[in-house]
Amino acid sequence: MTSFRKPRKIVITGGAGFIGSNLVYHWCNKYPGDRIIVLDALTYAGNRQTIAPLEEKGNLKFVQGDICDRSLIDELLETESIDTIAHLAAESHVDRSILGPGAFVQTNVVGTFTLLEAFRQRWQKQNQPADYRFLHVSTDEVYGSLELEDPPFTETTPYTPNSPYSASKAGSDHLARAYYHTYGMPTLITNCSNNYGPYHFPEKLIPLMCINILLGKALPVYGDGQNIRDWLYVKDHCRALDTVIHQGTPGETYNIGGNNEVKNIDLVRLLCKLMDELGDELPVSPSEQLITFVKDRPGHDRRYAIDATKIKTELGWTPQVTVEEGLSQTVKWYLQNRDWWKPLLSPEYQNYYQKVYSERSTPV
Ligand code: NAD
Ligand code: DAU
């Protein structure tokens, strides 16, 4: 028996960024009958080229615009008869939030508020349809930092954000939650662990290490390298977001994680090993020689770990890609897609890199 699914008219904000573009590919392939609008400001982290092949298909429209621009969003929701928002647009990098927190408050808090308000107006004008959805995509960083002996974060762990990035995400989570409790608007929140995979911007740990190995540059490991992150392959995250939009209960929060806790130094060593095996003619080999311990990130959270029991038992989602498989795919992707990442190492990016790593240049 085939079950009927009403096609959705969905806005994916941040659809030219890392997770957003992977979600756009997922959605276009799985739901070719849906209308998909990508709303993205194309900041340094957005790359329209990533999703350009999909723009030819006809059911996807790209709109360059800011989520803080209320009149643009009102017009978009109205003219496209939008019933669903998957909200991923954000300033997403912790190191940049330390250098300049203002943009984080503006995009992550004010931008999310603007989208929520615009969606509320549309939803109320349409007599509050029960099948409308606003998915707010968030992070496990809102829960703060764990010690080794602590149990993983659950959906009821108190919020204790430690960086300007996580504080801004926490603020936006609270707004999304409040819109359900105050207005009954069907919002859902997901809090996910560290993603990795294709189209990840070079500033983040995994792409940074892959690219620096290929360029023969130092591999800067913050502090003692013992910090722990839980890693999830981005395509598994996209399947989880799809599941939450279609099956999640409005007003609820779902934690999403890979059940893959790894110490940073072990991860970097594994990437070196994979690059040594898969890459030919590396400038420095074995690439572990490039590992350099540098001064720690201020306020660096020690450990993140996710308890994803709720999404597993209530909605049936579990990750499918093992960390060995996913990392090997990712290393191959960075080896085979130099044309994607090389243009991103722009003078603007080099300037940012200088700023962060000159402050951390003192080896520990
Ligand atoms: P990213 O930095 O790669 O992409 C962000 C996108 O948002 C870019 O395309 C950028 O151009 C766009 N954008 C930024 N400001 C905007 C604005 N004012 N208006 C419109 N577009 C704007 O981020 P990502 O890693 O893909 O993260 C996506 C979302 O998932 C974020 O909300 C982030 O907090 C969350 N998240 C990320 C991870 C992770 O590991 N990367 C994990 C959990 C949650
Ligand atoms: O946990 C989810 C979060 O994961 C998302 O909400 C964020 O958007 C995303 O950027 C990511 O945040 P992190 O700060 O964990 O990711 P990042 O890749 O910056 O760093 C991962 C770990 O590696 C962290 O412990 C810091 C360390 N690190 C990072 C860089 C860039 C280094 O040791 N050296 C580096 O050069």
State the end-to-end distance. 62 Å
CATH C-level name of the domain at 9-196 and 233-258 and 303-321: Alpha Beta
Question: What is the percent of helical residues?
Answer: 40-55%
pLDDT < 50 stretches: none
Order of helices and strands, N to C? Answer: EHEHEHEHHEHEEHEEHEEHEHHHH
Fraction of residues in β-strands: 15-25%
Separate helix tally: 13
Report the strand count: 12
Bound molecules: nicotinamide-adenine-dinucleotide, 2'deoxy-thymidine-5'-diphospho-alpha-D-glucose
CATH architecture of the domain at 9-196 and 233-258 and 303-321: 3-Layer(aba) Sandwich
Biggest sheet features: 7 strands, parallel
In round numbers, the mean pLDDT is: 96
Query: Strand pairing plus helix content: what structural class?
Result: alpha/beta
**CATH topology of the domain at 9-196 and 233-258 and 303-321, what is it called?**
Rossmann fold
CATH superfamily name of the domain at 9-196 and 233-258 and 303-321?
Answer: NAD(P)-binding Rossmann-like Domain
Computed over alpha carbons, the radius of gyration is 20 Å
